[in-house]
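## retry 2 of 3
previous attempt timed out at serialization; input unchanged, resubmitting
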Amino acid sequence: MAHISAGLEYGLHCLLFLADPRRDVPPASARDLADLQGVSVEYVAKLFTKLQKAGLVVATEGVHGGFRLARKADSISVLDVVTAIDGEKPLFDCREIRGRCALFGRKPPAWATRGVCSIHAIMLEAEARMREVLASHTLADLAARVDAKAPPDFGEAVAKWLSGGAPGRMRVDHRRARRGRTAES
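## retry succeeded, writing output
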């Protein structure tokens, strides 16, 4: 089992659609974000419920409602998103098996269980470094990386999709196609 869930990847990709560094992005519904990622609406809704509880996104209701970032993308770290979606689970769960060696019988010697387990100590250090790295990167950093790779009109196409502009029609066609219907039906 992976320490970090697939939900984190989907959540981050969805958040990147809300964190365009060049334009004000309209609110996006869970359905829109699900369609953009090719995943179920229910899955995205569960992720965004967690993100909302963590104060990373806010939701507005109504025809033009949806999710927006609750604060600027440069103040939301990747660690914030990891914690919101996956919780604060440890990287390693030490089972203290060092005292169970068959040579010890039922009572391990003091030296065998003294202090922190050597393996656990390394895992604690690895976890601390992982959290440092995740805390050092923000949604704005990730958005800038995507922006540097994407064609110049990609962000505009996403904004039009979310606002129901010309690509919004493609969005409707995409939904119909997912349900097995054509645009003419």
